[in-house]
């Protein structure tokens, strides 16, 4: 192993002193920024404006990404400024976010990805409770799972939108990596396995090859499984790395999911709609009269106005036999003329139509 010379040590010390001075400048600028943010917060409160402005956040990320010449990576730049913005929002006023808990669920991770660590997070026990917290004003936003790239849609979330007045104001694409964990970190100590049914399904091949004779119990979240293991040395859980850290568990095997490209899409819900960002997606739901050619006629307005559909899903209405509710995602904002015209044309053929919201389209790497 090479040993640093006295000259090298001196150069390192000089560079570290330079870093210290730069850190002090960054700290000074952060506090200067925070004072300006607090002024903006006072003006917003006086005019009864929303403190949280997702469109403004997107503008900040995109502008800085264009200006960035490196070597600092844009992905890390986004993470840094997400926390700066999150901390700034906490100075303006507490931002409350409801999510499917407990801590360390993948919904919690998606919430952190969207709002940063400085928001006030409210874990609840069900998707219905997330909607309720936001509808009753006890949370500013809610985060709910809507679909997984392996297991498909979360039907309960779709059903909640039928009667809820809430709007979709964002989406988060969260990579889902499942880890096997227990108290000891040894697979031979595993006598019982706990996890959410989706996580178990997504790791089916690995489990059949390595734990086929171990009994499995489904629980309402991966984090709950980790909590169970914290109290039971013979139990193992399939959960996130954050869950292992929070509940004092050791990871036996990392990334045991069958599909390594495993993502879950989450929706951000709020009482208020969101304005244009320039890269928007709109979600709608509707029912149509049961007749020959109904599905073709439903798709025709989108084709005529040159709109790309990114998703179409159907669910039984539960009100009438063989009546279905369709959920559609399309590119564009509900205020765009093409989208407005297509929706109006579709509405004429529907028994019921509801615009669920327009919001910035996310990518698999985040909301960049």
Layout of helices and strands, plus pairs?
Elements: H1 6-46, H2 54-67, H3 74-92, E1 96-100, H4 106-115, E2 120-124, H5 127-135, E3 141-148, E4 152-153, H6 155-163, E5 167-175, E6 179-182, E7 192-195, H7 197-202, H8 204-210, E8 216-218, H9 222-231, E9 235-239, H10 241-246, E10 250-253, E11 263-270, E12 280-288, H11 294-304, E13 309-316, E14 324-331, H12 337-347, E15 350-360
Parallel strand pairs: 1-2, 1-3, 7-8, 7-9
Antiparallel strand pairs: 3-4, 3-11, 5-11, 6-9, 6-10, 12-14, 12-15, 13-14
Helix pairs in contact: 1-3, 2-3, 11-12
Describe the 3D structure:
The chain is an alpha/beta fold and about 375 residues long. It folds into four domains: about 25-90, Up-down Bundle (Chorismate Mutase Domain, subunit A); about 95-175 and about 265, 3-Layer(aba) Sandwich (D-Maltodextrin-Binding Protein, domain 2); about 180-255, D-Maltodextrin-Binding Protein, domain 2 (3-Layer(aba) Sandwich), CATH 3.40.190.10; about 275-360, ACT domain (Alpha-Beta Plaits, 2-Layer Sandwich), CATH 3.30.70. The chain contains twelve helices and 15 strands. It has helices spanning about 5-45, 55-65, 75-90, 105-115, 125-135, 155-165, 195-200, 205-210, 220-230, 240-245, 295-305, 335-345; strands at about 95-100, 120-125, 140-150, 150-155, 165-175, 180, 190-195, 215-220, 235-240, 250-255, 265-270, 280-290, 310-315, 325-330, 350-360. Strands 1, 2, 3, 4, 5 and 11 form a six-stranded mixed beta sheet that branches. The protein has a five-stranded mixed beta sheet with strand order 8-7-9-6-10.
């Amino acid at each position: 192993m090479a040993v640093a010379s006295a000259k090298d040590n001196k150069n390192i010390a000089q560079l570290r002193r330079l870093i210290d001075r730069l850190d002090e400048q960054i700290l000074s600028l952060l506090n200067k920024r925070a004072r300006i943010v607090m002024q903006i917060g006072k003006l917003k409160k006086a005019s009864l404006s929303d403190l949280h402005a997702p469109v403004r956040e997107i503008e900040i990320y995109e502008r800085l990404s264009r200006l960035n010449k490196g070597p600092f990576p844009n992905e890390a730049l986004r993470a840094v400024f997400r926390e700066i913005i999150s901390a700034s929002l906490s100075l303006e006023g507490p931002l409350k976010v409801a999510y499917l808990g407990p801590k360390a669920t993948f919904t919690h991770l998606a919430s952190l990805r969207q709002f940063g660590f400085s928001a006030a997070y409210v874990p609840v026990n069900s998707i219905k409770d997330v909607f309720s917290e936001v509808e009753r004003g006890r949370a500013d936003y809610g985060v709910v799972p809507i679909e997984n790239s392996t297991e498909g849609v979360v039907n309960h979330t779709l059903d909640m939108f039928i009667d809820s007045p809430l709007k979709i104001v964002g989406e988060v694409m969260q990579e889902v990596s499942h880890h096997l964990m227990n108290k000891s970190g040894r697979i031979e100590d595993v006598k019982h396995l706990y996890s959410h049914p989706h996580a178990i399904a997504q790791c089916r091949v690995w489990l059949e090859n390595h734990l086929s004779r171990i009994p499995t119990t489904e629980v309402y979240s991966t984090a709950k499984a980790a909590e169970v293991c914290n109290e039971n040395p013979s139990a193992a859980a399939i959960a996130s790395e954050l869950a292992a850290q929070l509940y004092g568990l050791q990871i036996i095997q990392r990334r045991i999911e069958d599909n390594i490209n495993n993502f879950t899409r989450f929706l951000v819900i709020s009482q208020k709609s969101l304005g244009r960002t320039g890269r928007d997606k709109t979600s709608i739901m509707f029912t149509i009269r049961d007749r020959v050619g109904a599905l073709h006629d439903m798709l025709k307005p989108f084709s005529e106005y040159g709109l790309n559909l990114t998703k179409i899903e159907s669910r039984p209405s539960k009100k009438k036999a063989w009546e279905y509710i369709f959920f559609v995602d399309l590119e564009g904002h509900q205020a765009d003329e093409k989208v407005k015209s297509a929706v109006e044309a579709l509405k004429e053929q529907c028994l019921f139509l509801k615009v669920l919201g327009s919001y910035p389209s996310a990518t698999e790497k985040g909301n960049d």
